[in-house]
Amino acid sequence: MQIIQVGDEVRRYVWSIRATGKTVGIVPTMGALHDGHLSLVRNSVQRCDHTIVTIFVNPTQFGPGEDLKKYPRTFDADCAAVKDAGASLVFAPTAIEMYPPGFSTFVEPPDIALPLEGEFRPGHFRGVTTVVMKLFQLSPATHAFFGSKDFQQLKVIQAIVNDLNVGIEIVPCDIIREPDGLALSSRNRYLSPKDRLIARSLSNALSIAQSQFDQGERDVKTIETQMRKALADVTKIDYAAIVDADTLLPIQKIDHLAHVLIAAHVGTTRLIDNRPLKT
Ligand code: AMP
């Protein structure tokens, strides 16, 4: 498995593969890889002839006061894990390679970036859309693999690819969870043992929403109240919301496809989770 830091080299690598008619999957990550990331890699290895994993802690998607500086960095272990999972190449650009002096062009995120994370992390999706478009240019893959763990991010990427006619197939991948339901996240390692127990309440609250729905409840406020009760022990709830699954905008009654999303702080760690409401 190769490791490349320079954008032009990775572009040449991808085009040399594509020139032979083969497919290339890209898995964008910020490193500190866990089995959730590796499931994306395995999906890509299964589906594509070659798989590139990008590892870049993107400064433009972190707000002031967020955890950019302390974001976990485990590069050597990451490379070993993706090699094992069957990736052909790791692209790990430096911040200066991605954002050289004078850099000033950003990709304006679509409307679906406005609610939820858009409200609580202003500027976050502008950093995400910009870095993802840059990665797609540097590594012109045929397929890109994104986790449903970051459901709004997945929708944002699907929207920019659609709106800007980007020739890449976005492949959504399932959320990988701990046995007790907690969605795997690079940030879970920040949780103290006590907070780790409290963190289970996010996936519990999602299950409560589903079981209320299964019992016939269709009023969004009623279900959201039950979800907040299940989240009583978290430090702060940013949102615990049932929204339209296509637009992510608020709804009052569940009479079409809906999605449940939660963002909550447990101690000093901010966690997100989500699930579709299955009929
Ligand atoms: P990150 O390194 O947090 O930027 O995540 C990189 C990719 O891994 C994104 O597409 C995430 O949605 C995906 N991902 C993170 N956690 C999980 C998980 N528990 N299950 C599936 N995909 C995940």
Characterize the structure shown.
By secondary structure, the chain is an alpha/beta fold. It is built from 9 helices and 9 strands. The strands form 2 sheets. Strands 1-4-3-2-5-6 form a 6-stranded parallel β-sheet, sandwiched between helices. Strand 8 and strand 9 form a beta hairpin. The chain is globular, with a radius of gyration of 19 Å. The structure holds adenosine monophosphate. Adenosine monophosphate binds next to helix 2 and strand 5.
Give the termini distance in whole angstroms. 44 Å
Shape: globular
What is the ordering of alpha helices and beta strands? Answer: EHEHEHEHHHEHEHHEEE
By helix and strand content, what is the structural category? alpha/beta
Low-confidence stretches: none
CA gyration radius, whole angstroms: 19 Å
Adjacency order of strands in the biggest sheet: 1-4-3-2-5-6
Please report the total strand number as a whole number. 9
* Cofactors, ions, other ligands: adenosine monophosphate
**Strand-residue fraction?**
15-25%
DSSP helix fraction: 25-40%
Q: What is the overall pLDDT average?
A: 98
State the helix count: 9
For the biggest sheet, the summary is:
6 strands, parallel
Topology:
Layout: E1 2-4, H1 7-18, E2 24-29, H2 35-47, E3 50-55, H3 75-85, E4 89-91, H4 95-98, H5 117-120, H6 124-138, E5 143-147, H7 151-163, E6 169-173, H8 193-214, H9 220-230, E7 236-244, E8 258-266, E9 269-276
Parallel strand pairs: 1-4, 2-3, 2-5, 3-4, 5-6
Antiparallel strand pairs: 7-8, 8-9
Helix pairs in contact: 6-7, 8-9
The protein binds adenosine monophosphate.
